Amino acid sequence: MRSTLLNRCETLVRSQSVVARRVAGETLIVPIRAKVGDLASIYSFNGSGSLLWERLESPRGVDQLVNDLEREYDVTHEQAEQDVTEFLKDMLAVGLVEKSTAAVLPVAQGGAAEAQATGTLN
């Protein structure tokens, strides 16, 4: 069983054992098992889930994801934190997201840390 315990200092990234596609405004995820798509386990993400999935293409800290969601959807910090935590726990439990050993720069106001980590500003 995978560990779904999560702390704010952890860095997470998408599993490499999935195929993801955007279809009609949703992100569809198909796990790959034994080199074959597991069509019995297709996952679909709404807008906020799609945003988090997109950000997890490269290693991201929990706090970075919370700030991304808070900015993009203009929600309170508490709501963003709750949504990110629930999403990540669910994704860790089914193996779509993995804990990473990559270092991530601390979150700064205005996206400066994100610009340094990814080379882009949102």
User: Can you count the beta strands?
Assistant: 7
- The parts where pLDDT drops under 50 for at least 5 residues are 107-122
Largest sheet: 4 strands, antiparallel
CATH class: Alpha Beta
Helix and strand pattern: EEEEEHEHHEH
The geometry reads as globular
Radius of gyration: 14 Å
Distance between the termini: 36 Å
The number of distinct helices, counting runs of at least 4 residues, comes to 4
Question: Could you give a short description of this structure?
Answer:
38% of the residues lie in helices and 24% in strands.
What does this 3D model show about the protein?
The chain is α+β, with helices and mostly antiparallel strands and 122 residues long. It has one domain: Outer Surface Protein A, domain 3 (Alpha-Beta Complex). It is 38% helix and 24% strand. It is built from four helices and seven strands. The strands form two sheets. Strands 2, 3, 4 and 5 form a four-stranded antiparallel β-sheet that branches. The protein starts with 10 loop residues before the first strand and ends with a helix. The C terminus is likely disordered.
